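User: Let's play a game. I give you a shape written as tokens, and you guess the letters that built it. Ready? Here's round one.
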């Protein structure tokens, strides 16, 4: 009897421990299953493709690929790197495949440990001039079901890639936010033919701890999960022989001006770029809903857009405001910037010549400075227009700054006058002073309606530069037709969150 009982007990223990070790083996295998695959580019899209994926466990990783129509059935493989960072439980794997043929579809899969992903297709960029279709949109950060619906619709259009204009998620350091976003992107941004759609991302304030003026480490999830060109903060990509894409960082981990990014932008715009030039960055120079006078928007208008105009940018993609936006063609900022630079440089020079250490230049001793700064230029003798008022403000501000700081430079004077009510008021009258409705001007689209909470925009007439503006979920389809020297832009709107409509759209001629 006792023996029988012992036997039963031993058998039970054996079965339990077998089940237990089996589940450990199963779990260990689950841990390295490659999930959440994202395709990007780090260099030429004609001959390379980069990708990352995530696993819970650490193991060696490989990327496999072969042309879809290859007679040789063997996949080539490359070793991927594996890394992690503080604040995540995941291991990230990724690498760049080089030496690909242009205009070619490849079958690919990835492997970590002995676990493979499903096979998928990716496609390289053309080496000859041909039509290109891409989508543009941003701000997918909040309503998950809505953003999934927008991704589903976007993939149906079978684009070559998506320009994503930042604010992927809400909390920059929330693993679960990012997990869900990658899950959605990986599951939905794939066409009926099993082709994964590459993303060309720009960083937004929700990718960075604090939103603005952060460092790379403050955006650890963004920088660890997307493999991008160069320093990854701002970069250029040539897609095919006709299109150049410039992705910029609107004060999140790189300054709009006063740091290396503006020097990079000047240098890059002077390079031998493709005929069609498109810029993308998160915070709009021309917001459809938020303050027109926020610091970042203002410095974009003062420092980036004059360069865009000088180099004939064809289209600029913006986001952040959670609406649907198309602006009028805006020009004249190049001329304005020349005038502003001259006013600041000459005003500083005059102030340095006139400065008398015995005098007191504080605002309470210079009523002109207070009046001008407050926008009440009519109170100052000899000043008849806002532009003349800015000219005078530069002079008085320079005197004050010399007294306060000792030495002064362009940026110090600019930063000071840019804070004034006068400077802000000036923008409302911009079309009166400069040729703002210029046929050679730039169209700005976007404003981020990829699932983020929509914001009521009362009227397109509220701001002089708006053409069509509304609180609507959206993304834009852009068809570049090089033979016709035309780019066709078609807004796709998810109206009242239950019906997709395609607006008539418009063309940008080159
Ligand atoms: Fe934003």
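Assistant: Ready! My guess for every position:
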């Amino acid at each position: 009897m006792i023996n029988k009982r012992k036997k039963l007990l031993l058998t039970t223990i054996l079965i339990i421990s077998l089940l237990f070790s089996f589940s450990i083996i199963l779990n260990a295998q689950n841990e390295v299953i490659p999930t959440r695959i994202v395709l990007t580019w780090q260099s030429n899209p004609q001959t390379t493709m980069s990708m990352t994926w995530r696993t819970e466990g650490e193991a060696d990783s490989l990327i496999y690929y072969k042309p879809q129509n290859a007679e040789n059935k063997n996949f080539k493989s490359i070793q991927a790197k594996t890394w992690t960072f503080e604040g995540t439980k995941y291991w990230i794997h990724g690498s760049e495949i080089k030496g690909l043929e242009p205009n070619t579809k490849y079958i690919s899969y990835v492997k970590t440990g002995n676990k493979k992903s499903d096979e998928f297709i990716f496609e390289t960029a053309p080496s000859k001039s041909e039509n290109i279709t891409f989508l543009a949109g941003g701000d997918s950060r909040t309503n998950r079901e809505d953003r999934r619906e927008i991704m589903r619709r976007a993939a149906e259009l079978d684009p070559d890639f998506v320009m994503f204009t930042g604010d992927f998620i809400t909390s920059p350091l929330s693993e679960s936010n990012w997990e869900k976003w990658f899950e959605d992107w990986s599951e939905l941004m794939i066409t009926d033919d099993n082709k994964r759609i590459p993303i060309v991302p720009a960083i937004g304030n929700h990718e960075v701890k604090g939103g603005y003026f952060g460092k790379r480490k403050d955006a650890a999830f963004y920088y660890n999960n997307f493999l991008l060109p160069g320093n990854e903060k701002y970069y250029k990509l040539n897609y095919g022989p006709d299109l150049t894409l410039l992705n910029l960082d609107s004060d999140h981990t790189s300054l709009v001006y006063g740091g290396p990014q503006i020097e990079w932008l000047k240098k890059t715009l002077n390079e031998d770029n493709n005929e069609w030039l498109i810029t993308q960055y998160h915070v709009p120079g021309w917001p459809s809903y938020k303050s027109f006078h926020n610091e970042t928007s203002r410095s974009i208008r003062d420092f980036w857009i004059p360069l865009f105009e000088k180099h004939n940018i064809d289209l600029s993609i913006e986001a952040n405001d959670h609406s649907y936006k198309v602006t009028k063609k805006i020009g004249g900022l190049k001329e304005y910037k020349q005038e502003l630079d001259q006013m600041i440089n000459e005003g500083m020079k005059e102030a340095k010549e006139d400065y008398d250490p015995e005098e007191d230049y504080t605002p309470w001793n210079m009523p002109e400075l207070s009046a001008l700064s407050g926008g009440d230029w009519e109170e100052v003798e000899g000043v008849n227009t806002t532009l003349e008022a800015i000219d005078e403000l530069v002079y008085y501000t320079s005197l004050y700054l010399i007294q306060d700081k000792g030495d002064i430079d362009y940026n110090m004077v600019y930063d000071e006058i840019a804070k004034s009510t006068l400077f802000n008021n000036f923008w409302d009258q911009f079309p009166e002073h400069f040729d703002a409705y210029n046929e050679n001007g730039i169209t700005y689209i976007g404003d981020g309606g990829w699932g983020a909470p929509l914001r009521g925009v009362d009227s397109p007439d509220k701001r002089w530069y708006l053409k069509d503006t509304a609180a609507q979920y959206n993304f834009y389809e852009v068809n570049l037709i090089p033979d016709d020297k035309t780019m066709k832009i078609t807004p796709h709107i998810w109206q009242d969150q239950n019906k997709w409509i395609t607006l008539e759209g418009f063309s940008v001629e080159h």
